[in-house]
TrEMBL record, chain A:
Designated name of the protein: L-lactate dehydrogenase complex protein LldF
GO BP: lactate metabolic process
This protein's UniProt keywords: 4Fe-4S, Electron transport, Iron, Iron-sulfur, Metal-binding, Repeat, Transport
PANTHER family: LACTATE UTILIZATION PROTEIN B (PTHR47153)
Domain of life from the UniProt record: Bacteria
One Pfam assignment: LUD_dom
GO molecular function, one term: metal ion binding
Record domain 4Fe-4S ferredoxin-type: where: 306-337
Organism whose genome encodes this protein: Aquabacter spiritensis
Cited InterPro entries: 4Fe4S_Fe-S-bd, 4Fe4S_Fe_S_CS, FTHF_cligase-like_sf, Helical_ferredxn, LUD_dom, LutB/LldF, NagB/RpiA_transferase-like
UniProtKB/TrEMBL annotation, chain B:
Name this polypeptide is given: L-lactate dehydrogenase complex protein LldE
A cellular component annotation (GO) from this entry: cytosol
A matching Pfam family: CCG
TM annotation in the entry: none
GO molecular function: oxidoreductase activity
Domain of life: Bacteria
InterPro entries in UniProt: Cys_rich_dom
The Cysteine-rich domain, residue ranges: 12-92, 140-224
Length: 478, 262
């Protein structure tokens, strides 16, 4: 794990994010944009929910027979002249990539968008080895020149606004005329495209992620909207595919079903602009293509998930719908989560990879509103899996002490009704007397978290149970 | 409504929830009144909490103890009705998870959970109530609490009954189905994020122009009322049952009691 982890400081990260006006302005567009487009796309497809069931079933089947499909996939890739490398952890995956780059004498590497690359901290490692990584997805390019990490799994620069991008381009593209007009987004796009064109042609190795690995054919598939992935993987001497092991899918028929829910859930498109299938290196009769084709399959904790209660998380197809619909993500953005994967899917996946000790905040920072589960194209029960992490945290006594103490006191009373009822009567009587005049409290001891942002209503007086039973007793006497 | 052919009115155990029990008993009485109107015989067995705070904090042992306690107290009733989607959802959809792999318990828990209903869903879907005899002079907007909406499908039922209230105008707000930021213990664990989420909700309530905000969960109501009041807004916040039972003239949540009131 070379990517710097700030998940333990989630609260502080969130506080900063909430006070960051440009970020809040960028985040205000996440919900309306993504949600509206997904809803519209889903509404146009009567079988959308049936497809989600099918997508879930395909992934469940694959995970149940993952060993078989991995072997089949490896055989097929080899038959097509490619190489499959298995990496147990991030360090192994990085070494595999740098060994290939070194053997080919690579100076620069172009990269398509890959979250696995972020997960293994590849860019820093390549740079340390004297190999320059060049991100070619526009969003990834923007955050690379800013020295940032992605804040969203499909829209890595969603935390930025146009003015920030313009300022960065003027700073980084200093060789271009300063008087050029960059006021339109299309001008920014054209400039990035111009800058990247040369880099595509120079690159020695191209690295992409994979949305799917097809066992039937040994094919890797990427979906993109910019076409940068195609240039990344066809022009250089070698194409390296980075994929985590849950990207396996049995057949092309299965892929075609998953593709129908992927783009609709992600961006509300029926299909991404480009869906690119790669099978092996360039063949003699091909007009273009890489001379070598490598697939690095990363485990990094996933085989442990496969065997345990988090298996359902491995169905994830990385559409981002969960974060697009998450009120917490909308409030704080992706960087606050403090590692590669933000939002609800990150809250489940991250602790599996960095450990619950460091990642405990993430599954706790959810209201359990359930909207993520409601929109997940492969029906991952995200709140249930977040709760699983809370249980692990509680079992291992990692829950913060004040919280555990509060829960313990409450639990002591709640389990002893004969004590609970008089105790709550007394407490409510006291609070209702104190709050009689105003009807509410603007500060309350032990409830600072609540009253920092809102008032607390004064109780009406006696408890419902006491009143009910008093009335019942009275009725009984009449 | 109860049909004349029924031999006796169905018995309903009212699980009022710990928040209603302690903070706003009026909701419990409103719920009991609505259940009586729907032809039910209501009683209130001794109770504490459904266990949700423990469940969502990862404390399975406490959750299990509270679940057993609740089941024992309520399983003799024909129905168990809860004026909260969140607590009803906890019982109906999550209790079975606590007893998985225990053949002694599973059928008993399944029988129990089948009897559990959120108040609005029970009145409309089980008892067939279509209208109430109540009056409320005001423009109301309705917030869909998350668990009721997504775990139990509570959406149309409260709106249907509200439409029958004389003098009441229902005005939908934007994002009525988006979380208010309460989230049980979430609001005290992550107060700043919760505060930011409820601020958006309050803005939508205000933009609707309604003078009253209703919902079916006291936790969410306390959160939204507290925010609106902190912002100095004069929106009356009440549980939907209070308006449907015609007790919507009592002081709204967080508002001062009138002189001479009890």
């Amino acid at each position: 794990m070379s990517v710097h982890i700030t998940s333990p400081a989630f609260k502080e990260n969130a506080k900063k994010a909430l006070a960051d006006a440009p970020l809040q302005s960028a985040l205000s567009k996440v919900g309306p944009g993504f949600i509206g487009r997904r809803t519209a796309a889903a509404g146009l497809l009567p079988e959308f929910d049936a497809l989600r069931d099918s997508a879930r079933d395909i992934k469940n089947h694959t995970l149940a027979h993952l060993d078989l499909y991995l072997e089949r996939y490896e055989t097929k890739v080899r038959a097509a002249g490619g190489h499959v490398h298995f990496a147990v952890d991030a360090a192994e995956a990085r070494d595999i990539v740098t060994d290939i780059c070194r053997r080919l004498g690579a100076k620069t590497v172009t990269k398509g968008k890959s979250m696995v690359s972020e997960e293994i901290g590849l860019n820093d490692h390549l740079a340390a080895c004297g190999i320059e990584p060049v991100e070619t997805d526009l969003g990834e390019y923007l955050i690379q020149i800013r020295g940032e990490a992605p804040s969203h799994i499909i829209a890595p620069a969603i935390h930025l606004n146009k003015d920030q991008v313009e300022a960065d381009f003027r700073r980084v593209h200093a060789h271009l005329p300063p008087e050029r007009n960059l006021s339109e987004p299309t001008a920014l796009l054209a400039e990035a495209r111009g800058e990247l064109r040369q880099r595509f042609l120079q690159a020695d190795v191209g690295i992409t992620g994979a949305n799917f690995l097809v066992a039937e054919t040994g094919t890797s598939i990427i979906v993109t909207n910019e076409g940068n992935g195609d240039l990344t993987q066809t022009l250089p001497k070698a194409h390296i595919v980075l994929a985590s092991l849950e990207k396996l899918v049995p057949t092309l028929e299965d892929v075609s079903q998953l593709l129908r829910v992927l783009a609709r859930s992600a961006t509300g498109q029926e299909m991404s602009v480009y869906t690119t299938f790669s099978t092996g290196p360039r063949r003699p009769e091909d007009v273009d293509g890489p001379g070598e084709y490598h697939v690095v399959i990363l485990d990094n904790g996933r085989s442990g998930m496969l065997a345990g209660q988090l298996r359902e998380m491995l169905r994830c197809i990385r559409c981002g719908a969960c974060m697009n619909h998450c009120p917490v993500y909308h409030a704080v953005g992706g960087h606050a989560y403090g590692w590669v994967y933000p939002g609800p899917m990150g809250a489940v996946l991250t602790p599996s990879i960095i450990g619950i000790e460091k990642g405990a905040n993430l599954p706790n920072a959810s209201t359990f509103c359930g909207r993520c589960e409601e929109v997940c194209p492969v029906r991952i029960p995200l709140p249930k899996l977040m709760r699983h992490w809370r249980e692990k945290e509680f079992e291992r006594h990692l829950t913060p002490a004040p919280q555990r103490f509060g829960l313990g006191v409450w639990s002591f009373f709640a389990r002893r009704g004969w004590l609970y009822r008089p105790a709550t009567r007394l407490a409510m009587w006291g609070l209702s007397r104190l709050g009689w005049r105003a009807g509410r409290f603007s500060t309350l001891p032990l409830a600072g978290g609540w009253t920092r942002h809102r008032d607390f209503p004064a109780p009406e007086g006696d408890t419902f149970q006491a009143q009910w039973h008093a009335r019942k007793a009275k009725r009984g006497q009449e | 409504m109860s049909s004349p052919s029924e031999k006796r009115p169905p018995s309903v155990g009212l699980f009022v929830t710990c928040l209603v029990d302690t903070i706003r008993p009026g909701i419990g009485f409103a719920a009991a009144q609505l259940l009586a109107q729907a032809g039910c015989e209501v009683d209130v067995p001794r109770q504490t909490c459904c266990g949700q705070p423990a469940f969502n904090s990862g404390d399975r042992i406490t959750t299990r103890a509270l679940a057993e306690q609740t089941i024992a107290a309520f399983e003799t009733f024909d129905y168990v009705v809860v004026p909260s989607g969140s607590c009803a959802g906890m019982i109906k959809t999550h209790y079975p998870e606590l007893f998985v792999g225990e053949p002694d318990w599973m059928p008993r828990v399944a029988r129990f959970c089948a009897k559990v209903h959120e108040l609005m869903a029970f009145l409309v879907d089980v008892r067939g109530l279509r209208a109430v005899a109540a009056r409320y002079d005001g423009t109301v907007t309705y917030h869909d609490s998350c668990s009721g909406l997504r775990e139990l499908g509570v959406h149309d039922q409260p709106r249907l009954l509200l439409q029958s209230v004389e003098g009441l105008e229902l005005r939908e707000m934007a994002d009525a189905d988006v979380c208010c930021g309460f989230g049980g213990t979430f609001c005290v664990k992550y107060p700043d994020i919760s505060g930011a989420i409820v601020e958006k909700k309050a803005a939508n309530v205000i933009a609707s122009g309604a003078d009253t905000l209703l919902a079916g969960d006291l936790g969410c109501l306390m959160n939204m009322a507290g925010k609106l009041q902190r912002m100095g807004r004069e929106v009356a916040v009440r549980h939907v049952a209070e308006v449907l039972a015609g007790t919507g003239t009592a002081p709204a949540i967080g508002m001062a009691r009138r002189e001479g009131g009890t």
